[in-house]
Amino acid sequence: LYAIETPQGELDEAIAEEAKLQAMLLKAKEKKRKAQERLERQNQLRKEIEDLQKEVESDKKLLKDAENSLKKAEKEYEEAKSSWDSETARLKPLNESIERKKAKQTELEKLISDKTKELKKLENELAFEQKKRNKMKAKSAGVEKRSLSKKEDFEKEKERVYELKNAIKQRESTIQKKDKQLQAL
User: Fold this and answer.
1) 28, 112, 113, 142: which sits with the fewest CB atoms below 10 Å from its CB?
2) Using alpha carbons only, how large is the chain's radius of gyration in Å?
3) Residue of 137, 18, 24 lying closest to 84 (CA atoms)
């Protein structure tokens, strides 16, 4: 009886051993699959971080160019504004002089009978200064227009710098998040 049961016992033992080995094999394959997925995710995150770092470097170069452009625009704006202020200051005494002479002209018109000669001289001076003022106003208008244009350029550059700084902050934040994900893996 013992001799008959022994081969069956060995077979059962072998079958149990085989089932155990197959279970271990499945477990090992699953472990291998998960490890490969984790490795692929790590590689993907590394690539994403590398791409984002390249974008940040590119954006930093753009930011540097934009900041230089902003400085240049600001300098040009300040120069144009200074020129406009100078033109305005030069025009003020002439305007004041014209106003005084107009007042005097009104006064002299009341005394026209005995002041005709003086009035004629004053009218000639007034006409000359008005022509001069008109020329200066035309020149000043060009300076003002250039000043306003430079101010607009300055404002555009300032907005561009602000947007680039925000884009860099967002990308750096994304890099930190992905770096944390990478470390968690």
Assistant:
1) 113
2) 44
3) 137
Sequence spans of domains, the chain: 2-184
Contact by Cβ (8 Å): 122, 106: no
Tokens 């884009």, residue? 167
| Helix 112-184, helix 2-110: angle, nearest 10 | 170
Instruction: Per residue of the chain (185 residues), give pLDDT as tens.
Output: 444 556 678 889 999 999 999 999 999 999 999 999 999 999 999 999 999 999 999 999 999 999 999 999 999 999 999 988 888 888 888 888 889 999 988 886 777 677 778 889 988 999 999 999 988 888 887 777 888 888 998 999 999 999 999 999 999 999 999 999 888 87
Contact 94, 132 (CB under 8 A): yes
Place of tokens 């149990």: 16
3 token code pair:
């001799």
Report the Cα 78 to chain-centroid distance in Å: 21
Q: 2-184 in CATH: which number?
A: 1.10.287
Residue labelled with tokens 């094999």? 25
